[in-house]
Amino acid sequence: MSPILPVFLLIASLSTAYATCDPAALYDPTYAADAAGKGGVEVSRWLHLRTSAFHEPVSYTAAWNALEASIDSHNASHVRVIYGGTAPKCRTGAYYGLECAWNREHLWPQSYGVGESSGLTAAAAPRTDLHALVPSLKALNSARSNRAFAQITDWPNDDGRCGPKYVGCETPACTKTTCGVKGTAQWGTDPGFWTPPAMYRGFIARALFYMAVRYDGDEPNTFNLTLGETPAKGGGGGRGLEKAPYVFGALSHLLRWHDDHPVEAWERARNDAVCAVQGNRNPFTDKPELAAVVFGGVGTAAEADTSDAGKGFDTWTWSLVTGLAVMWALYIFGMFRWFV
Ligand SMILES: *[C@@H]1O[C@H](CO)[C@@H](O)[C@H](O)[C@H]1NC(C)=O
Ligand SMILES: *[C@@H]1O[C@H](CO)[C@@H](O)[C@H](O)[C@H]1NC(C)=O
């Protein structure tokens, strides 16, 4: 075997690292342009493969560090917290001698098929997945508990829910020590419902869309996650494939939020930052029009975005070009040595 071949293979594999964080390389432009004409199941399967192929799950500790250092860093001393505001970067005991004010919130609750409380190991990929793991004020994380997301502030007062006399429906939701920003409200338990403030509604919808295509129970230590109107717990223990799926939602509210609160610049930056750490992207942040294709929509299913069609090289082409350039350089270098 030529001694150059291993070098070529090494360089080719190195050059693929992080290349998939370029959306133009990640989504097959021909397929994406045509996605709206395909069935939801087929597109969902395609997105499942695109989100799992490059995903290298991190540890739960590494996830904490990455949230603080880059993904949700607000500035040198503070992190952005879901449900509004910021909190000092700290470790337990390190913040003015008090317990740390923020911890990790699972937007898809651990007890609904992503964490130890649903029978998975501590290192399970869905539990440490940074697309749906965010800093939260500790008190609000506890207050939200495992409530599903819905816009309860719009519920009519005359159906016995969220009328002025029903404690717990106020906005913002408060604990003894902490309040969310206006727009945060809660109602009911088991699991009940939680309304995040407007600036996080679209992001949360897209995070849950991602979880539902990323995890279908076909890998060890995962369950089949699906979205619906009524949350339900699937079969516990072992592989999820043959078990009932875990259902979370509420899907109709998430679809409405997705339409009403389009992707913002900070979400795109967060998507890039997560990809830099775990290697995969949230396709619903990159291509919002695919949500209607996969989950059905409110309003019209927007045309698939074809703007990146034909733009740039894909990962494999870049590897080939890099590899050939290196082979050429080694060849010239060898000739040069031959003549001196
Ligand atoms: C970081 O942001 C927090 C919250 O907005 C602010 O109180 C603090 O002064 C900022 N610190 C720096 C170093 O900019
Ligand atoms: C996951 O559950 C959904 C809803 O029941 C089902 O349509 C889908 O086929 C399941 N996926 C797998 C891989 O079993």
TrEMBL record:
One Pfam family of this chain: Endonuclease_1
Keywords associated with the record: Endonuclease, Hydrolase, Membrane, Nuclease, Signal, Transmembrane, Transmembrane helix
Signal peptide bounds: 1-19
InterPro entries: Endonuclease-I, His-Me_finger_sf
Transmembrane region(s): 316-339
Any GO MF annotation of the entry: endonuclease activity
Protein name: Endonuclease I/ribonuclease family protein
